[in-house]
Design brief:
Layout: E1 3-8, H1 16-27, E2 33-37, H2 48-53, H3 57-68, E3 71-76, H4 85-95, E4 106-112, H5 120-132, E5 136-137, E6 143-145, H6 160-179
Parallel strand pairs: 1-2, 1-3, 3-4, 4-5, 4-6
Length: 180
């Protein structure tokens, strides 16, 4: 049974991306378990002096959860045509670990925004960053939920086509993970 870890790239309690992340376990195919990580706000800003004094506990805890997972799903908004600073900061910290926790790890990306493009520019930048870490990123189907305010409520995905597309990506991702 594949165990997946979903990382939410937003700190906001009412984030559309948090709604999507919390919907994933119910949309996953049978036999796939999804756990949610929302602790990026516990990471200090990356600082080489802090790193020299010892890797912060939240960073090593996330690295352990990534290592224990068969794959990772990153669910994040787009900020200023890129990924949120809190997500980039988390990735920067993870990049400093040896062994690299994302190297060879299957990763799926999901973005949602109130704009029409649904986070496409964020996905482009996030994919570039994940290449540097040697993650195995799923290419298709892509999940970019545009005009999220019309497809999600405060606690659910209300748009059936969006639910179906996310469920399809999860099924494809589970197979991608199984094939290694």
């Amino acid at each position: 049974m594949p165990k997946l870890l979903a990382i939410c790239g937003s700190l906001r309690r009412a984030s559309y991306n948090r709604v999507i992340a919390h919907a994933l376990p119910a949309l996953a195919p049978a036999g796939v378990a999804i756990e949610i990580f929302e602790g990026l706000g516990d990471f200090p800003l990356y600082d080489g002096d802090v790193e020299a004094a010892g890797m912060p506990a939240p960073v090593t805890a996330l690295a352990a959860r990534i290592a224990a997972a068969d794959g990772v799903i990153i669910v994040t908004p787009e900020y200023n045509y890129s990924m949120p600073g809190v997500l980039k900061n988390g990735i920067d910290w993870l990049s400093r670990l040896k062994p690299q926790p994302l190297a060879g790890k299957p990763v799926a990306i999901q973005t949602a925004s109130m704009g029409a493009m649904g986070g496409v520019r964020c996905q482009h930048h996030l994919r570039q960053t994940l290449v540097a870490l040697e993650a195995r990123v799923l290419n298709k189907p892509e999940i970019m939920v545009g005009q999220a305010q019309n497809k999600l409520s405060a606690d659910a995905i209300t748009d059936e086509p969006t639910r179906g597309l996310i469920a399809k990506q999860l099924a494809v991702f589970a197979e991608f993970v199984r094939k290694g």
